[in-house]
């Protein structure tokens, strides 16, 4: 077998032990081998129990090992039913504080505890246990297995189980109770860490004969409920539900009613500070919780002070960063304003130069057009003057015409009586005395306008022979 295959098998074996709570590596290896080393299939076969069988198995001491009378598939059942030598039996859980490995399905089913490492010390009876609150997640080599087992319990499923438990517990035992959070275990652990409190865990076995009396007289007593609500974050789960069942395996619950006080520990584990198994009176429960609280107070205070110091340092860095950014932004704003002012001056100079060139071009164009018009008029006057021919001598067939202009200027010329009215207009145009092209030749007495309708008449036909006096009337 190659080295990568051996590493993969070792990873699968470690994760299978963490998920199921089975401590014997030989049994875990045989179960995995019976399922072709398919981690997801083996875990599913181990955890897939019906509600009644799992609840019954864990309620009466079956939560700490392989699942009691749970309905496993034949391959898993054959391995679990095999007699185990006495020397390999798992030791009974003690009341000493210890580190507990959480099931991967519980961890990967929550998005809660993802943070940087925080150094904490845990005050224990007779000494100090040092640990850190680290990243709850997986290393780079376990991504594939983590993805497959993440589907076992989703975030919404864990929260739904917690909400159902709170609703059922309140319905059965009233509103005077610990304020169990309606979210998954990992989210509750995150909440307790954020609040710098311990997490009070209650695993509910509804079929256990001691459960009703314990809930009514101890857990729901005013003194215990008030003390827990004041000093702890509370999470409860039914061992009939998936997450409650897995936590009972992880905490090695061997007797009910079962309570525990935990804190987050390193990597994928929690620190079990205290477990309370079996029925207890309210006074006994208060003594136990008070002792745990007193022993854990130094580490909680230290954690709070460390967190406040970190927040202060972060706030100081943020203020320094903000001051630096403000100064940098001010410098950038001044530089931007300088550039904008320079660009504005350059644009204005360019615009002024463009306008100067446009005005110069317009003047040149106007002068050129005026010269072209003047030349065209000169050509037109010359052409019309040439079209008139020589002025005829006086005679019976010659008409004497006097034209008065609006300026008072007078012009006089002789024309053949057969010349057309258009000839008179050509004559006026050839003189260049008018600035406009639109005008009419008009006689005073009687007033007759020789407009466009009379241009084809001869002078004699128009009644202008032998002599006529006309004036130029400008039209708009």
TrEMBL record:
Membrane spanning stretches: none
Gene3D superfamilies assigned to the protein according to its UniProt record, in alphabetical order: DNA helicase RuvA subunit, C-terminal domain, Glutaredoxin, Phosphatidylinositol 3-kinase Catalytic Subunit, Chain A, domain 1
Keyword Transit peptide: no
CDD domains: UAS, UBA_FAF, UBX
Compositionally biased region (Basic and acidic residues): 331-381
Domain UBX: 394-472
Region of interest (Disordered), residue spans: 330-381
Entry superkingdom: Eukaryota
Keyword line: Coiled coil, Ubl conjugation pathway
Keyword Metal-binding: no
Coiled coil: none
Protein name per the record: UBX domain-containing protein
Organism: Citrullus colocynthis (colocynth)
């Amino acid at each position: 077998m190659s080295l990568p295959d051996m590493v993969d098998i070792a990873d699968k074996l470690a994760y299978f032990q963490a998920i199921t709570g089975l401590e014997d590596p030989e049994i875990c290896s045989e179960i995995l081998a019976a399922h072709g080393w398919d981690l997801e299939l083996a875990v599913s076969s181990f955890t897939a129990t019906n509600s009644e069988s799992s609840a019954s198995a864990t309620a009466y001491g079956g939560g700490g090992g392989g699942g009691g009378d749970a309905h496993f598939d034949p391959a898993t059942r054959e391995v679990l039913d095999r007699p185990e030598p006495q020397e390999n039996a798992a030791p009974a859980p003690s009341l000493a504080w210890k580190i507990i490995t959480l099931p991967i399905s519980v961890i990967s089913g929550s998005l809660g505890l993802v943070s940087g490492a925080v150094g904490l010390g845990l005050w224990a009876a007779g000494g100090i246990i040092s640990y850190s609150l680290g990243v709850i997640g997986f290393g780079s080599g376990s991504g594939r297995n983590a993805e497959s087992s993440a589907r076992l319990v989703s975030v919404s499923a864990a929260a739904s189980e917690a909400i159902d438990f709170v609703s059922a517990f309140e319905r059965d035992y009233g509103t005077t109770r610990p304020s169990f959070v309606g979210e998954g275990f990992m989210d509750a652990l995150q909440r307790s860490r954020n609040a710098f409190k311990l997490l009070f865990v209650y695993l509910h076995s509804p079929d256990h004969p001691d459960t009703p009396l314990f809930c009514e007289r101890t857990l729901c007593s005013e003194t215990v409920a008030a003390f827990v609500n004041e000093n702890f974050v509370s999470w409860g789960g039914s061992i009939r539900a998936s997450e409650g069942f897995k936590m009972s395996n992880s905490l090695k619950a061997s007797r009910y009613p079962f309570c525990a006080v935990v804190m987050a520990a390193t990597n994928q584990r929690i620190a079990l500070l205290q477990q309370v198994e079996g029925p207890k009176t309210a006074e006994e429960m208060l003594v136990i919780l008070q002792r745990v609280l007193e022993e854990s107070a130094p580490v909680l205070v230290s954690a709070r002070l460390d967190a406040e110091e970190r927040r202060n340092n972060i706030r100081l860095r943020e203020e320094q960063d903000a001051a630096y950014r403000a100064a940098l932004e001010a410098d950038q704003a001044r530089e931007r304003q300088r550039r904008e002012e320079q660009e504005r001056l350059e644009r204005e100079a360019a615009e002024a130069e463009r306008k100067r060139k446009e005005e110069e071009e317009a003047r040149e164009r106007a002068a050129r057009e005026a010269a072209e018009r003047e030349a065209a008029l000169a050509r037109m006057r010359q052409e019309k003057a040439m079209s008139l021919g020589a002025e005829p001598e006086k005679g019976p067939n010659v008409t004497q015409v006097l034209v008065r202009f609006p300026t008072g200027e007078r012009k006089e010329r002789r024309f053949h009586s057969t010349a057309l009215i258009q000839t008179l207009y050509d004559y006026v145009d050839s003189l260049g005395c008018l600035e406009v092209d639109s005008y009419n030749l008009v006689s005073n007495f009687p007033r007759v306008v020789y407009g466009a309708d009379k241009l084809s008449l001869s002078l004699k036909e128009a009644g202008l022979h032998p002599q006529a006096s006309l004036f130029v009337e400008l039209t708009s």
